[in-house]
Specification:
Radius of gyration: 14 Å
Distance between the termini: 38 Å
Oligomer: single chain
CATH topology: Oxidized Rhodanese, domain 1
CATH superfamily: Rhodanese-like domain
Strand content: 5-15%
Largest sheet: 5 strands, parallel
CATH architecture: 3-Layer(aba) Sandwich
Structural class: alpha/beta
Number of domains: 1
Shape: globular
CATH class: Alpha Beta
Order of helices and strands: HEHEHEHEHE
Strand order of the largest sheet: 1-5-4-2-3
Amino acid sequence: MDPVKEILQAAYARAQQKNLPYAGALTPAEAYRITTLASRAKLVDVRTHAEWNYVGTIPGSVRIEWQTYPDGQPNAHFLSELKQQVNPEDVVMFICRSGARSHAAAVAATRAGYRDSYNVLEGFQGNKDANGHRDSIGGWRNAGLPWVQD
């Protein structure tokens, strides 16, 4: 079976199990694998400019803030920026710090006609550990996937 289809089917099954309103939910490793195998796949990082600058970025990702920095207000131009940078026919995978903003972005994109919208579970930094720190439980960075510090 085609590895991309296999991954997307697993993501779809997760979405069905969790009753999510978009195409699927991917692990960071699955999202990375899709970016390496599917030319019509886009990883959209919806964190803030400050997070990209101070925490790091994923090479090749599309960057569109879901909420603006520093006020945390919704980005009123999110969908228009998405339409300028990502084809609605592409597989679109949304990632944020921990998976909450990217969930909201996947919902909004699906409603706007992006039928292959996926949320990247765990996000870039994963969940907090017992000491309240990220980057040790789940997430893109903790999985050892490619990222850079600007």
